[in-house]
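Revision sheet: structure tokens.
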Amino acid sequence: MRFAYSVTGSKAGMPEPVATAWSLYLLRCSDGSIYTGITTDVMRRLDEHRSGPRGSKYLRSRRPVELLYQRRIGDRSLASQLEYRVRKLARDRKDDLSSVDALIDRYLSPGPG
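Predicted:
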């Protein structure tokens, strides 16, 4: 797990690890396709996709891209699982952002018990 450190510190002056929140995002590409990804900083990642060499290879030939959707998920494992599920959605379901929200809500809601 990736950690950011607080400035308050803990025992023996060591910094306390603070879990980094992960977000899922969707980008609309210039060819109309939809790219799905996860990151800890959506705006930084969007800038990388738009101009930097650290952007996705898939997006390099599909610029410009625009942010279509973003949602904070929590830990990386959960974000990766949701990224996989959203990528498997049919194109028309991804275009309908309420379908994406509904899928994430169902996945995040606690089950019976």
